[in-house]
Amino acid sequence: MKSLRLSLLSFFCLLSVTNTIFAQKQTPTLGIASSLSQDSLVYAAGFKVITESVKKMLSPALSDEEFKENLKKIKAAKCKVLTCNVFFPADIKIAGPNVDEAKVLAYAEGVLSRAKQAGVKYIVLGSSGARSIPADYDVNKAKSDFVKLCKKLGEIAGKHQVLVVLENLQSSETNFLNTLKSAAEIVRGVNHPNFKLNADIFHMMREGELPKEIIAAGDVIAFVEVAEKETRSLPGVKGDDFKPYLTALKQINYKGYLFIEGSVKNASVEIPAAFKYLSAQINEVYLSKK
């Protein structure tokens, strides 16, 4: 009898683990933008991958010794530093009339070569200041020139086995490429396997974009970010419902990374709560048979 109880217990434990693995394979993997200094807290909350910043981790402005120290921290971390954001600082223009292409490409080479060394797989191209253009500048010319530049960024990224993902940004942050639709047009124009789209749901909500735009851009989406609409808080703080956007992601069969990028007031409370809150919505949408 005792052996039967142990066998049943073992069976149900195995079933639980199997169901968890199955769910993970069927749903996006959650990550969060966080400093490596919070690695243990983030890992304990359930996250296994994080976003750090290019400036802190990979920038060519860092000395070789500083970069080596970063590599040690990355290697020792419980969470994998999968991606870095804020690709270009505001003083390196990537759109508009003042682009120094040689400077841009040299900087990108430095960042992307270090990304490869660090095992960073994604570089998020938001860079609101770097891509803002003069108010009276020809937007069509800006887009055309930006496509040409991004083709070259894609080539460098390909050489270093990194994926650059272009982020849609709300109009309060930049005046160039404020919608998912406009960012998707750039990515399609670039047409390079190492240059894809980051669908930022927070910025979509701020610009009033509906979930159907995710479906329309589904062929080029390779990364997704999210935060709550009102104050860019972590999921669960205000209780935002992301299910319509998650449903759109399910419709395009997106099972990649979904990163939380928001402001935090009480990390020890909000980070674990965000993991549980967003995981629940993801599972409700993705594991439904509808």
Walk me through the structure.
The protein is globular. The model is unreliable at 6-23 (pLDDT under 50). The protein starts with a helix and ends with a helix. It has twelve helices and eight strands. It has an eight-stranded parallel β-barrel, surrounded by four helices. It is 49% helix and 14% strand. It has one domain (28-286): Divalent-metal-dependent TIM barrel enzymes (TIM Barrel, Alpha-Beta Barrel). Helix 2 (39-45) packs parallel to helix 12 (267-286), helix 5 (101-118) packs parallel to helix 7 and helix 7 packs across helix 8 (180-190). It is of the alpha/beta class.
Structural class: alpha/beta
Radius of gyration: 20 Å
CATH class: Alpha Beta
Strand fraction band? 5-15%
Order of SSEs: HEHEHHEHEHHEHEHHEHEH
- Find the count of extended strands (DSSP E, 2+ residues): 8
CATH topology: TIM Barrel
Q: Tell me about the biggest sheet?
A: 8 strands, parallel, barrel
The total of helices stands at: 12
**In terms of per-residue confidence, which ranges show pLDDT below 50 for 5 or more consecutive residues?**
6-23
State the CATH architecture: Alpha-Beta Barrel
Spatial strand arrangement across the major sheet: 1-2-3-4-5-6-7-8
Q: What is the number of independent domains? A: 1
Distance between the termini: 42 Å
Backbone shape: globular
CATH superfamily: Divalent-metal-dependent TIM barrel enzymes
Q: Overall mean pLDDT score?
A: 93
* Oligomeric state as shown: single chain
The percent of residues in helical segments reads: 40-55%
